[in-house]
Amino acid sequence: MxxxxxLLWPDGKAFAFTIFDDTDLQTRDNGxxxxxFLRDIGLRTTKSVWTLAGTESAPLAGxxxxxxxxxxxxxALQDQGFEIASHGATYHTSTxxxxxxxxxxxxxxxGHPPRSHANHSTNREGIYWGAARLTGLRRRAYAxxxxxxxxxxxxxxxxxxxxxxxxxxxDRITYVRNFxxxxxxxxxxxxxxxxxxxxxxxxxxxxxxxxxxxxxxxxATIDESSQDRLAHEGGxxxxxxxxxxxxxxxxxxxxxFRSLMERLSGxxxxxxxxxxxxxxxxxxxxxxxxxxxxxxxxxxxxxRQKVGTPS
Length: 311
What we know:
The structure is a single chain. α2 (68-79) links the parallel β2 (46-49) and β3. This protein is an alpha/beta fold. It is built from 11 helices and 12 strands. The chain is globular. Strands 1, 2, 3, 4, 5, 7, 8 and 11 form an 8-stranded parallel sheet that branches. A two-stranded parallel sheet has the order 6-12. A two-stranded antiparallel ribbon has the order 9-10. The protein has helices at residues 32-40, 68-79, 96-110, 136-148, 166-172, 186-189, 215-221, 224-233, 255-265, 274-285, 292-304, and strands spanning 15-21, 46-49, 83-86, 116-117, 175-181, 195-196, 205-211, 236-241, 248-249, 252-253, 269-270, 288-289. The longest helix has 15 residues, at 96-110.
Protein backbone atom coordinates (compact mmCIF):
# COMPACT_ATOMS: atom_id res chain seq x y z
CA MET A 1 0.00 0.00 0.00
CA UNK A 2 1.16 3.52 -0.80
CA UNK A 3 2.77 5.00 2.32
CA UNK A 4 0.88 8.09 3.48
CA UNK A 5 1.37 8.25 7.25
CA UNK A 6 2.75 10.23 8.88
CA LEU A 7 1.88 13.01 6.43
CA LEU A 8 2.67 16.52 7.59
CA TRP A 9 0.08 19.11 6.65
CA PRO A 10 1.22 22.69 6.04
CA ASP A 11 1.60 25.20 8.86
CA GLY A 12 1.42 22.55 11.56
CA LYS A 13 -2.16 21.62 10.75
CA ALA A 14 -3.40 18.31 12.14
CA PHE A 15 -5.67 17.20 9.27
CA ALA A 16 -7.23 18.40 6.01
CA PHE A 17 -10.88 18.96 5.13
CA THR A 18 -12.64 20.27 2.06
CA ILE A 19 -15.85 19.99 0.03
CA PHE A 20 -16.53 19.33 -3.65
CA ASP A 21 -19.95 20.85 -4.31
CA ASP A 22 -21.82 19.22 -7.19
CA THR A 23 -23.88 22.00 -8.79
CA ASP A 24 -27.05 19.94 -9.36
CA LEU A 25 -30.21 21.93 -8.44
CA GLN A 26 -28.23 24.97 -7.31
CA THR A 27 -29.65 28.45 -7.90
CA ARG A 28 -29.00 32.07 -7.00
CA ASP A 29 -31.31 31.53 -4.01
CA ASN A 30 -30.02 28.35 -2.35
CA GLY A 31 -26.29 28.73 -3.08
CA UNK A 32 -25.16 32.05 -1.57
CA UNK A 33 -26.24 31.45 2.07
CA UNK A 34 -24.10 28.30 2.28
CA UNK A 35 -21.06 29.92 0.73
CA UNK A 36 -21.32 33.01 2.91
CA PHE A 37 -21.28 30.69 5.91
CA LEU A 38 -18.28 28.68 4.65
CA ARG A 39 -16.39 31.89 3.96
CA ASP A 40 -17.15 33.32 7.38
CA ILE A 41 -15.94 30.21 9.25
CA GLY A 42 -12.68 30.16 7.29
CA LEU A 43 -13.24 27.34 4.80
CA ARG A 44 -12.28 27.56 1.15
CA THR A 45 -13.79 24.72 -0.85
CA THR A 46 -14.55 23.73 -4.45
CA LYS A 47 -17.73 24.57 -6.34
CA SER A 48 -18.53 22.99 -9.71
CA VAL A 49 -20.44 24.78 -12.46
CA TRP A 50 -22.14 24.31 -15.79
CA THR A 51 -21.03 27.05 -18.14
CA LEU A 52 -23.58 26.77 -20.98
CA ALA A 53 -27.34 27.15 -21.00
CA GLY A 54 -29.28 23.94 -21.35
CA THR A 55 -31.41 23.31 -24.42
CA GLU A 56 -33.37 20.37 -22.97
CA SER A 57 -35.21 19.67 -19.75
CA ALA A 58 -33.46 17.47 -17.18
CA PRO A 59 -34.41 16.23 -13.69
CA LEU A 60 -31.32 17.59 -11.92
CA ALA A 61 -31.06 20.93 -13.72
CA GLY A 62 -29.89 24.04 -11.92
CA UNK A 63 -28.72 27.52 -12.80
CA UNK A 64 -25.82 27.73 -15.26
CA UNK A 65 -23.24 30.42 -15.89
CA UNK A 66 -25.33 31.53 -18.88
CA UNK A 67 -27.20 33.47 -16.18
CA UNK A 68 -25.09 36.62 -15.86
CA UNK A 69 -25.98 37.26 -12.21
CA UNK A 70 -25.17 33.68 -11.23
CA UNK A 71 -21.87 33.80 -13.17
CA UNK A 72 -20.95 37.02 -11.40
CA UNK A 73 -21.64 35.40 -8.04
CA UNK A 74 -19.41 32.43 -8.92
CA UNK A 75 -16.64 34.77 -10.11
CA ALA A 76 -16.86 36.56 -6.77
CA LEU A 77 -16.46 33.21 -5.01
CA GLN A 78 -13.28 32.61 -6.98
CA ASP A 79 -11.99 36.03 -5.95
CA GLN A 80 -12.62 35.04 -2.31
CA GLY A 81 -10.43 31.92 -2.65
CA PHE A 82 -12.95 29.25 -3.58
CA GLU A 83 -11.98 26.90 -6.41
CA ILE A 84 -14.31 26.64 -9.41
CA ALA A 85 -14.53 23.22 -11.06
CA SER A 86 -16.33 21.62 -14.00
CA HIS A 87 -19.47 19.51 -13.95
CA GLY A 88 -19.61 19.38 -17.75
CA ALA A 89 -20.89 21.90 -20.27
CA THR A 90 -24.50 21.80 -19.05
CA TYR A 91 -27.03 19.64 -17.24
CA HIS A 92 -27.85 17.31 -20.13
CA THR A 93 -25.74 15.26 -22.53
CA SER A 94 -23.38 17.30 -24.71
CA THR A 95 -21.59 16.46 -27.95
CA UNK A 96 -17.82 16.83 -28.25
CA UNK A 97 -18.23 20.27 -29.82
CA UNK A 98 -20.49 21.44 -27.02
CA UNK A 99 -18.17 20.08 -24.33
CA UNK A 100 -15.24 21.94 -25.87
CA UNK A 101 -17.34 25.11 -26.08
CA UNK A 102 -18.19 24.68 -22.40
CA UNK A 103 -14.52 24.50 -21.45
CA UNK A 104 -13.69 27.54 -23.57
CA UNK A 105 -16.45 29.45 -21.83
CA UNK A 106 -15.01 28.33 -18.49
CA UNK A 107 -11.67 29.86 -19.51
CA UNK A 108 -13.39 33.12 -20.48
CA UNK A 109 -15.18 33.31 -17.15
CA UNK A 110 -12.47 32.12 -14.76
CA GLY A 111 -9.18 32.76 -16.54
CA HIS A 112 -8.00 29.17 -16.91
CA PRO A 113 -9.34 25.68 -17.72
CA PRO A 114 -10.98 23.77 -14.86
CA ARG A 115 -8.39 21.99 -12.75
CA SER A 116 -10.91 19.49 -11.41
CA HIS A 117 -14.00 17.85 -12.84
CA ALA A 118 -16.83 15.55 -11.76
CA ASN A 119 -19.06 13.72 -14.23
CA HIS A 120 -22.78 14.51 -14.13
CA SER A 121 -24.57 11.25 -13.41
CA THR A 122 -27.00 11.41 -16.34
CA ASN A 123 -24.75 12.98 -19.00
CA ARG A 124 -23.64 10.38 -21.53
CA GLU A 125 -20.36 12.21 -22.22
CA GLY A 126 -19.20 11.11 -18.77
CA ILE A 127 -15.57 10.01 -19.03
CA TYR A 128 -14.86 6.44 -17.84
CA TRP A 129 -18.26 6.49 -16.16
CA GLY A 130 -20.86 3.84 -15.43
CA ALA A 131 -19.43 0.36 -15.96
CA ALA A 132 -16.28 1.91 -17.47
CA ARG A 133 -15.23 2.85 -13.93
CA LEU A 134 -14.48 -0.83 -13.39
CA THR A 135 -12.46 -3.62 -15.02
CA GLY A 136 -12.89 -7.28 -15.89
CA LEU A 137 -15.74 -9.25 -14.37
CA ARG A 138 -16.62 -6.33 -12.13
CA ARG A 139 -17.20 -4.17 -15.18
CA ARG A 140 -19.41 -6.75 -16.88
CA ALA A 141 -21.46 -7.34 -13.74
CA TYR A 142 -21.97 -3.64 -13.13
CA ALA A 143 -22.97 -3.14 -16.78
CA UNK A 144 -25.69 -5.77 -16.37
CA UNK A 145 -26.98 -4.07 -13.22
CA UNK A 146 -27.05 -0.67 -14.90
CA UNK A 147 -28.81 -2.06 -17.96
CA UNK A 148 -31.46 -3.67 -15.76
CA UNK A 149 -32.01 -0.34 -14.01
CA UNK A 150 -32.31 1.54 -17.30
CA UNK A 151 -29.19 3.60 -16.75
CA UNK A 152 -27.32 5.02 -19.76
CA UNK A 153 -23.95 4.03 -21.14
CA UNK A 154 -21.19 6.61 -21.32
CA UNK A 155 -18.82 7.45 -24.17
CA UNK A 156 -16.69 10.45 -23.23
CA UNK A 157 -13.64 8.17 -23.35
CA UNK A 158 -14.58 6.37 -26.59
CA UNK A 159 -12.72 7.64 -29.69
CA UNK A 160 -15.02 7.90 -32.67
CA UNK A 161 -18.11 8.70 -30.60
CA UNK A 162 -19.75 12.08 -31.08
CA UNK A 163 -19.50 12.36 -27.29
CA UNK A 164 -15.72 11.70 -27.11
CA UNK A 165 -13.64 14.35 -25.36
CA UNK A 166 -10.98 12.22 -23.66
CA UNK A 167 -8.12 13.99 -25.43
CA UNK A 168 -9.47 17.34 -24.26
CA UNK A 169 -9.77 16.07 -20.69
CA UNK A 170 -6.17 14.82 -20.80
CA ASP A 171 -4.88 18.12 -22.19
CA ARG A 172 -6.86 20.53 -20.02
CA ILE A 173 -8.04 18.96 -16.74
CA THR A 174 -5.81 17.72 -13.91
CA TYR A 175 -8.15 15.92 -11.49
CA VAL A 176 -11.33 13.89 -12.01
CA ARG A 177 -13.50 12.46 -9.22
CA ASN A 178 -14.16 8.72 -9.17
CA PHE A 179 -15.03 6.49 -6.21
CA UNK A 180 -17.00 7.72 -3.20
CA UNK A 181 -16.73 5.99 0.19
CA UNK A 182 -18.88 6.35 3.33
CA UNK A 183 -16.10 7.22 5.80
CA UNK A 184 -14.97 10.74 6.67
CA UNK A 185 -11.29 9.92 6.04
CA UNK A 186 -11.11 9.90 2.24
CA UNK A 187 -7.36 9.43 2.30
CA UNK A 188 -7.64 6.27 4.39
CA UNK A 189 -10.23 4.92 1.96
CA UNK A 190 -8.09 5.80 -1.07
CA UNK A 191 -4.48 6.19 0.09
CA UNK A 192 -3.19 6.42 -3.50
CA UNK A 193 -4.91 9.66 -4.47
CA UNK A 194 -4.28 11.54 -6.59
CA UNK A 195 -3.37 8.65 -8.87
CA UNK A 196 -3.05 7.90 -12.56
CA UNK A 197 -4.70 4.72 -13.81
CA UNK A 198 -2.85 3.37 -16.88
CA UNK A 199 -6.05 1.56 -17.89
CA UNK A 200 -7.80 4.94 -18.21
CA UNK A 201 -5.22 7.14 -19.95
CA UNK A 202 -7.42 10.12 -20.78
CA UNK A 203 -7.59 11.14 -17.10
CA UNK A 204 -4.39 12.60 -15.67
CA UNK A 205 -5.20 12.08 -12.00
CA UNK A 206 -8.17 10.55 -10.18
CA UNK A 207 -9.34 11.40 -6.68
CA UNK A 208 -11.85 9.81 -4.34
CA UNK A 209 -14.34 11.46 -2.01
CA UNK A 210 -16.39 10.89 1.12
CA UNK A 211 -20.13 10.38 0.77
CA UNK A 212 -22.55 13.18 1.63
CA UNK A 213 -24.90 13.78 -1.30
CA UNK A 214 -27.52 15.64 0.79
CA UNK A 215 -27.58 17.35 4.15
CA UNK A 216 -28.67 14.25 6.10
CA UNK A 217 -25.87 12.01 4.82
CA UNK A 218 -23.38 14.88 5.03
CA UNK A 219 -23.97 15.52 8.72
CA ALA A 220 -23.98 11.79 9.46
CA THR A 221 -20.55 11.45 7.84
CA ILE A 222 -19.01 14.40 9.72
CA ASP A 223 -20.54 13.85 13.14
CA GLU A 224 -18.55 14.70 16.27
CA SER A 225 -16.86 11.33 16.72
CA SER A 226 -15.88 11.22 13.05
CA GLN A 227 -14.39 14.71 13.23
CA ASP A 228 -12.36 13.76 16.28
CA ARG A 229 -11.09 10.61 14.60
CA LEU A 230 -10.10 12.50 11.44
CA ALA A 231 -8.12 15.00 13.49
CA HIS A 232 -6.53 12.31 15.70
CA GLU A 233 -5.44 10.21 12.72
CA GLY A 234 -4.17 13.16 10.68
CA GLY A 235 -6.37 12.24 7.73
CA UNK A 236 -7.89 14.14 4.84
CA UNK A 237 -11.54 14.46 3.90
CA UNK A 238 -13.01 15.51 0.54
CA UNK A 239 -16.76 15.63 1.09
CA UNK A 240 -18.68 15.15 -2.17
CA UNK A 241 -22.06 16.76 -1.81
CA UNK A 242 -24.85 18.83 -3.36
CA UNK A 243 -25.05 21.98 -1.27
CA UNK A 244 -28.43 22.65 -2.89
CA UNK A 245 -29.95 19.54 -1.27
CA UNK A 246 -31.37 20.51 2.09
CA UNK A 247 -28.56 22.69 3.42
CA UNK A 248 -30.80 25.77 3.49
CA UNK A 249 -34.52 26.38 3.93
CA UNK A 250 -35.73 29.82 2.99
CA UNK A 251 -32.18 31.13 3.33
CA UNK A 252 -31.72 29.63 6.80
CA UNK A 253 -28.93 27.09 7.23
CA UNK A 254 -29.74 23.58 8.43
CA UNK A 255 -28.98 23.81 12.19
CA UNK A 256 -27.12 20.51 12.48
CA PHE A 257 -24.95 21.38 9.46
CA ARG A 258 -24.18 24.78 10.97
CA SER A 259 -23.22 23.43 14.37
CA LEU A 260 -21.05 20.61 13.04
CA MET A 261 -19.21 22.87 10.61
CA GLU A 262 -18.61 25.50 13.28
CA ARG A 263 -17.20 22.77 15.51
CA LEU A 264 -14.98 21.45 12.71
CA SER A 265 -13.70 24.91 11.78
CA GLY A 266 -12.55 25.38 15.37
CA UNK A 267 -10.16 22.45 15.07
CA UNK A 268 -6.59 22.68 13.78
CA UNK A 269 -7.49 21.76 10.22
CA UNK A 270 -6.19 22.73 6.80
CA UNK A 271 -9.28 24.00 5.00
CA UNK A 272 -8.36 24.44 1.36
CA UNK A 273 -9.97 23.67 -2.02
CA UNK A 274 -9.77 20.21 -3.57
CA UNK A 275 -7.10 21.11 -6.11
CA UNK A 276 -4.81 22.61 -3.45
CA UNK A 277 -5.18 19.53 -1.27
CA UNK A 278 -4.43 17.14 -4.14
CA UNK A 279 -1.46 19.23 -5.28
CA UNK A 280 -0.03 18.97 -1.78
CA UNK A 281 -0.45 15.20 -1.64
CA UNK A 282 1.33 14.70 -4.94
CA UNK A 283 4.09 17.16 -4.06
CA UNK A 284 4.76 15.31 -0.80
CA UNK A 285 4.73 11.80 -2.26
CA UNK A 286 5.28 12.11 -6.00
CA UNK A 287 3.03 10.83 -8.80
CA UNK A 288 1.33 7.48 -8.20
CA UNK A 289 0.49 5.03 -10.97
CA UNK A 290 -2.17 2.59 -9.87
CA UNK A 291 -1.12 -1.07 -9.91
CA UNK A 292 -3.43 -3.91 -10.88
CA UNK A 293 -3.71 -5.05 -7.27
CA UNK A 294 -4.51 -1.53 -6.06
CA UNK A 295 -7.13 -1.09 -8.77
CA UNK A 296 -8.78 -4.38 -7.88
CA UNK A 297 -8.87 -3.53 -4.17
CA UNK A 298 -10.47 -0.13 -4.77
CA UNK A 299 -13.05 -1.50 -7.20
CA UNK A 300 -14.06 -4.42 -4.99
CA UNK A 301 -14.42 -2.25 -1.90
CA UNK A 302 -16.43 0.38 -3.78
CA UNK A 303 -18.76 -2.24 -5.27
CA ARG A 304 -19.40 -3.82 -1.87
CA GLN A 305 -20.75 -0.57 -0.45
CA LYS A 306 -22.30 0.71 -3.66
CA VAL A 307 -25.80 -0.69 -3.19
CA GLY A 308 -28.03 2.19 -2.15
CA THR A 309 -25.22 4.75 -2.37
CA PRO A 310 -25.47 7.56 -4.94
CA SER A 311 -22.72 7.66 -7.57
